[in-house]
Each structure stands twice: as structure tokens, then as C-alpha cells.
What does this fold into?
Amino acid sequence: MSAAPSPADSLAEALIDAQDQLLALYELATLTTESLDEDECVDPILQRAARLLSAEITFAVGETFAPEASSAMTVVAKNSSGLSGALTARRDAEPFGTADQKLLRAVANIALGAVQTSRLHADAVAQAVVARDHDTASELAQLALPSWRPKVRGLDVFARSDPARTAGGDLFTFVETPTSLHFVVGDVSGKGLPAAMMMTTIISSANAAMHSHGADPLATLSSIDSWMYDYLSGSGLFVTIVAGSIDTTTGELRLANAGHSPVIAVQNGVPSMLAATAPPIGVLPLGSTAMTEDRLALSPRDRLVVCSDGFSEQLDAHGNMFGDDRLLRRVADLSNGAHDHGSTLFDELDEFAVGAAQTDDRTLVIIDFHDQSVSRRAA
Amino acid sequence: MDIAQHTTDGRVVFTLTGRFDAHEADAVKDALHAEIKAGHSDLGVDLAGVVFLDSSALATLTSAMKRCREAGGDLVLLSPSDPARVILELTRLDLAFEIL
It folds into this structure.
């Protein structure tokens, strides 16, 4: 019969246990892994814990089961994100003591932390991939806008579109002949990549339509309508769009406008709004409204301006809108040609909007008509 | 923007007050589409208190109008304020909506 341990022996044993726990925790805490793979993060922790406890150890993320046998001990760890895991240790040699249970709880928490880190990293990587694809798609969409500017004798053309995000639904495109310029300017409802995706398709259909019917803007819009209605309608979008053609030998401007504003003609120095004659494409089924065409006789120094609403509706830091009245006054300033004046107007708008966010895509197209003997610099 | 809702003569009417732009479009869209999904295809949107409409707002109204018509009903616009009426006329959406 063995004697009961003395208080001194018990105290010494407790101190040794505490020291062993501290060393074990130190070993676990100093474990490093160069991988962020979930298994590769957790396995070394479990292996080290198994060696320290001389036990078989498993860790099940999301589980909260109870021990199955007297030789097993399970501890459950949970974190503030709701992630949980059950760590089970099995050892036949001797039962687990209180100190072992504390150590197992620490191991479970360390393993759960490793799993959480691994999953957060995986989420961040997935989001980065989506963001990169989004940026690439946006850049590709904006490339659908022509980078070249028409150089038709007798015309000076400025065109620029600044999307509110990395891509937008505003569009312009041109088809030129030696004596004429056909153009389409539009604004797909909505913003960002969804609008930009639709914008690219509309540019393609507009280019095809202008190559077939360029001198006839009504036919151009009718073709775009017939090709795009189902797509626009099905996606819940519409496009305000204006098609035009200028014959530089006669000065005749033909214009068809489906819901787009503002469109401004400056004739003899006097600006006036040209109203749309039909709703935007994508709103009403093809042919349900009768669209009409505007015809203007341009004289040298006359100007056509087509903006998107994001240009005229830009707010300043105090909530005041740039506005159509200001725009009318500014576009009627003929002291500079289309290219210089367009750049100046964008600068003015940027200055106006200091302290306020750009909430919509901004597009400005200016076409100055000159005597054909005058060749102006193209933008 | 405030969105209030009541029913008049069997028509669910949403009364909008304030600036109706891209920031508010989703909330209005959700409210309108929830009613359509619940089987109510006769809707009204009261624009008397709307001080501004942008293209996102117009797209929201247009989309809901088309869904109502597909379901055999309609979405009508009620008492548009002057700014709202100007936008509807400039875009010729006044030809697409019934405006009371």
C-alpha cells in the first residue's frame, strides 16, 4: 500500500504540469506555416499536439459532437464569426487529466484560428479575381468607343466620354464619307459594367446601321430598334439615342432622336434645344410610336452639341446642378473650335464639381460646321 | 426620398417625395416589383413631390410599367411635378406612360 503524496509532492507535481503546459503552448504558438491552404495550416498543429499529448488527434470544422468512448476527449471551439470546430483526442495509455483538457482547448482554438485565416484568405483571393475580371471587362467595354475622330472636310468634331465608374453606358460612334458624317450618340440607362455591356452591343448595331442607312437617321434608329429591342427590354434597360447625318456639300443636318437630351443646335450664334420625337429604344415595341426627323440647314460657324444627362445634371458641392441653361450659354461661345471648346467645357465641369462625386457618365460631342474651304483640326 | 404606399380604387399607389435618382432607384424598384410579384399589376406612382428624376429612375419606372402590362395591368404616373414632367417630355416617355 503506497502512502498518500505529501502536500509538497502534490505542489511539485502541479508546478511541473503547469510548466509542461507552458512549454507545449509555446511550441504550438511558435509553429509557422508558409501555406494558407486549410489542411496545410491545421495539420502541423495537430501533429505537434499529438506528439505533446501522446494521443491521436482529429479536428472537424463545423462539428460539435461529443466523445464516443472513455478513451477520447472532445473539446469544441467557436469564434465570433460563428465558425466552430471539434477537436477529439484519443489515448489508451492513460486518461486525460484537467491539464490535458486545457491544452486541448488551446489547440482547438489555435486550429480554428488557422482555419479562419485560411478561409478569409481564400475569400479575399476570390474577390480579387472577380474584381480583376470586372476591371478587365470594363476596360474592354470602353474600348468599344472609337478612339479616332472624324476628319471630314468642313467639320470640326470633339467627342469625349468619361464614365462615372470604370465603364459606363454612354456611347458615341461615327461613320464618315468624304462629304458627309453620320453619327450616333446615346445613353444606356443604368451605370457601370451592366450598362457598358449593353453599350458595346449598341455601338456595333449602330455602326452596322449607319453603314447601311447612314444618310437616313430614321432608318438608322429603326434598324437599331429592331435589333436591340428584345435585348434591351429583356434586360430592363433602355437607351436614349440620337442619330444624325451632316452633308457637308449642302450643310443639311438630318437628325432622329429617341428620348435623348440635351441636343443643342447653335445657329447664327443662338442655341436652341432639339426635342426628341420618340421614347427611348427599349421602352415600347417596335413601330408603336411614329418617329419624325428634324432637318436643319447649317451655315458656316453653326454648331451641334449632344451631351448625356450626366454632363448637364452634374452637381456641385452645394447640390446645385450644372444645368441646361448654363450649358446653353456655354456651348454658344464660338470663340474656340469644337476641339478646344469641348476640352474647356470638361475642365469647367470638373471645376464646378470640385467636392462633389461624379454620379453619372459624362459625354459631350460637338460638331462645328465650317465652309468646306476651311479645314479645322480634328480632336 | 420618402416612399409611402396606399391603395385607392383597387390600385396600389406609391407616393414618392424628394430626389428620385440612382441612389433611390433600388428601393423603389424593390417596392414596385414586390407588389407585382404579389399579384398586383395595377400600380400608380405619384410624382407630385419628386423634385428630380434621373435616367436610373426612369429605367425603374419603365421596367415596372412593362412588367405590369405583361401581367395585364398598367403602371400609371400621377400628378408629376414640373421637374418630373419636363424630364418625361424631354425623353418622350410621356408617350409611353399613361399620366393622370
Notes: The longest helix of chain A spans residues 98-142. Residues 253 and 296 of chain A are 5 Å apart (CA to CA). The helical segments of chain A are 7-29, 38-53, 98-142, 192-213, 217-235, 309-312, 324-331, 338-352.
